[in-house]
């Protein structure tokens, strides 16, 4: 097929990458540790861990999981943590033990957490104290979950500081609801027990096609499914990013800012693994919503790479302390997860002198598909060029390729494309073709230089601050309310988060109030999924087969 994007590649970017540079993600980690053992790997709340320390801790935890907890390679381990030092240790421990990592959003409700643990069959979980009450509530629904490891935000910050941070979080800020998990083990206990087995522990030797992650996404239907991402998938995306930035980023010399949660696939690859590939120092931001504290942390580091979503950059730019941050070392700013707005990109360039590069990806593609060249002089409204070893095609409704500047569905093929959805061949068949093409459900066009522009979505998915929200899920939850007859959900534009959820509701009981609906949604849904606008209507527009016409709802 034609690959017009190759002629637009910077001269140092190869057309293809070789995924066999690493046998697995474990091999990648081991090579980095060997080269950068004494270099800082992670920093969080003033505490730094070197690569050698991450190696030591993750080996101990892996040894505990296999020898102490009796787990077997191929079992699933859920990680329900924000950006704290325990996250990368748990991540690499799981991979070194040959387990499949299930990244779990800490903000999940009981229903959402139960579904993910049931669907993945996870037999172990590492969870922050703040969210342990949610796990307690659904334990009877997940009898296969045998190993529970709990931890506090301050557990790895040092004895005195850690105790202080945990006390403030629990007793002053009251962020840790009471819970009882009698069989749970503390994170530090697991590390200590694992030390007894560490001398005799051998890292697993996963192969390219072995599954590394079940990364959950709603796909096109809203039913949460685990995208099976193999070691090869992630290695490919890491090496694609490495090839793209080879002129600018130097091994062992970079400082990454990780404000997006590592359980999100964007941060997982762009910051979690790419930083390790470079031997970079990774500054973990636990709560970027605390903008004064976030900007104060930025002032401490001569950071060179920062990634985020449009809402994060917008919030930073509109805070008065932004001018206290020194951006002189910054080389790359990467925007993804949601559309980058021109006003935000222009202001970012004005404040930092660095172009905000827009990229595009999907959970199903590990995630990166396209990215703009690092030397792009200014925001161009495009999602960029297909990465090395990546093919992109714009197709019509019949699956036939379209010409330049014609809008159609974006299809993707490459080594970063998932194996399929976990135990859902029917859903996999809806999006993957036998010849390897993934149907993204996004409407795009390509110009003659190979640049891709996103036009619209075939899906009814709503993108709230980089997180996928699926109307079907929200409608199903609303329909369970005893006072609601039926509901239709759409996404509407929002200056802060890109889009928010709007619900149209037909009452079954006239006494139903907007506040009742909001309270109910807060109990059943993560905050970003809750409708921000609620409209009561007499009926919903429907097709002749009874399907809610969301297009008509948008016209309302």
Provide a compact summary of the structure:
The protein has 556 residues and is of the alpha/beta class. The chain is built from 16 helices and 25 strands. The longest helix has 18 residues, at 51-68.
Molecular structure report:
This protein is of the alpha/beta class. The chain has 16 helices and 25 strands. The strands form 5 sheets. It has a 9-stranded mixed sheet. Helix 4 (110-120) crosses helix 5 (132-138). The longest helix is centred in the first third of the chain and has 18 residues, at 51-68. The protein starts with 24 loop residues before the first helix and ends with a helix.
Topology:
Blueprint: H1 25-36, E1 40-44, E2 47-50, H2 51-68, E3 76-80, H3 86-96, E4 100-103, H4 110-120, E5 124-128, H5 132-138, E6 147-151, H6 159-172, E7 185-186, H7 187-198, E8 211-217, E9 225-230, H8 231-244, E10 255-258, H9 265-278, E11 281-284, H10 291-298, E12 305-308, H11 310-317, E13 332-335, H12 342-352, E14 356-361, E15 368-371, E16 385-386, E17 391-395, E18 408-413, H13 425-431, E19 438-446, E20 452-457, E21 462-464, E22 467-469, H14 471-479, E23 484-494, E24 498-507, H15 514-524, E25 533-536, H16 550-555
Parallel strand pairs: 1-11, 3-4, 3-5, 4-8, 5-6, 6-7, 10-11, 10-12, 12-13, 13-14, 24-25
Antiparallel strand pairs: 1-2, 8-9, 14-15, 15-16, 17-18, 18-19, 19-20, 21-22, 23-24
Helix pairs in contact: 1-9, 2-3, 2-7, 4-5, 8-9, 11-12
Mean pLDDT equals: 94
Number of strands: 25
**What strand line-up does the widest sheet have?**
2-1-11-10-12-13-14-15-16
Determine the structural class based on helices, strands and strand pairing: alpha/beta
The parts where pLDDT drops under 50 for at least 5 residues are none
What percentage of amino acids are in beta strands?
15-25%
Radius of gyration, in angstroms, nearest whole number: 23 Å
How helix-rich are the residues, as a percent range? 25-40%
Distance from first to last alpha carbon: 43 Å
DSSP helix count? Answer: 16
Largest sheet: 9 strands, mixed
The gross shape turns out to be globular
């Amino acid at each position: 097929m034609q690959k017009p994007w190759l002629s637009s590649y910077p001269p140092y970017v190869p057309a293809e990458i070789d995924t066999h540079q690493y046998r697995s993600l474990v091999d990648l980690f081991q090579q980095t540790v060997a080269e950068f053992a004494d270099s800082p790997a992670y920093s969080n709340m003033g505490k730094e861990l070197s690569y050698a320390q991450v190696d030591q801790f993750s080996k101990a935890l892996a040894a505990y999981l296999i020898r102490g907890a009796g787990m077997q390679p191929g079992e699933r381990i859920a990680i329900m943590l924000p950006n704290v030092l325990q996250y990368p240790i748990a991540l690499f421990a799981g991979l070194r033990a040959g387990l499949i990592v299930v990244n779990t959003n800490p903000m999940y409700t009981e229903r959402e957490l139960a579904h993910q643990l049931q669907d993945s069959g996870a037999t172990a979980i590492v969870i922050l104290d703040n969210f342990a009450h949610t796990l307690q509530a659904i334990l009877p629904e997940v009898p296969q979950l045998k190993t529970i490891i709990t931890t506090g935000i301050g557990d790895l910050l040092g004895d005195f500081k850690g105790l202080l941070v945990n006390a403030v979080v629990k007793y002053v800020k009251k962020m840790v609801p009471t819970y009882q998990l009698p069989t749970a083990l503390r994170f530090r206990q697991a590390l200590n027990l694992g030390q007894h087995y560490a001398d005799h522990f051998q890292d697993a030797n996963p192969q390219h096609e072995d599954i590394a992650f079940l990364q959950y996404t709603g796909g096109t239907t809203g039913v949460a499914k685990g995208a099976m991402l193999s070691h090869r998938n992630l290695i490919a995306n890491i090496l694609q990013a490495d090839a793209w930035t080879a002129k600018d980023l130097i091994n062992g010399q970079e400082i990454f800012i990780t404000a997006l949660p590592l359980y999100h696939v964007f941060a997982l690859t762009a910051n979690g693994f790419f930083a390790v590939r470079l031997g970079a120092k990774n500054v973990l931001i636990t709560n970027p919503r605390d903008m004064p504290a976030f900007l104060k942390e930025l002032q401490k580091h001569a950071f060179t790479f920062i990634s985020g979503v449009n809402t994060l950059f917008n919030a930073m730019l509109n805070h008065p302390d932004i001018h206290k941050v020194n951006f002189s070392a910054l080389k790359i700013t990467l925007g993804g997860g949601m559309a980058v707005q021109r006003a935000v990109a222009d202001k970012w360039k004005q404040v930092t002198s660095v172009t905000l590069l827009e990229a595009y990806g999907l959970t199903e593609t590990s995630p990166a598909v396209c990215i703009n060249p690092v030397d792009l002089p200014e925001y161009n409204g495009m999602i960029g060029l297909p990465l090395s070893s990546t093919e992109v095609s714009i197709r019509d409704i019949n699956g036939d390729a379209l010409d330049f500047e014609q809008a159609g569905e974006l299809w993707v093929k490459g080594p970063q494309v998932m194996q399929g959805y976990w135990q859902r061949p029917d859903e996999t068949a809806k999006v993957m073709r036998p010849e390897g093409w993934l149907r993204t459900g996004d409407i795009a066009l390509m110009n003659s230089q190979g640049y891709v522009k996103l036009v619209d979505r075939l899906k009814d998915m709503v993108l709230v601050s980089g997180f996928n929200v699926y109307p079907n899920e929200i409608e199903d939850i609303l329909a369970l309310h005893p006072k609601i007859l039926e509901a239709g959900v759409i996404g509407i534009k929002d200056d802060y988060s890109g889009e928010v959820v709007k619900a149209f509701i037909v009452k079954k009981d006239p006494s139903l109030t907007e506040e009742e609906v909001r309270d109910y949604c807060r109990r059943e849904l993560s905050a970003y999924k809750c409708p921000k606008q609620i409209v009561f209507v007499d009926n919903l527009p429907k097709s002749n087969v009874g399907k809610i016409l969301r297009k008509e709802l948008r016209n309302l």
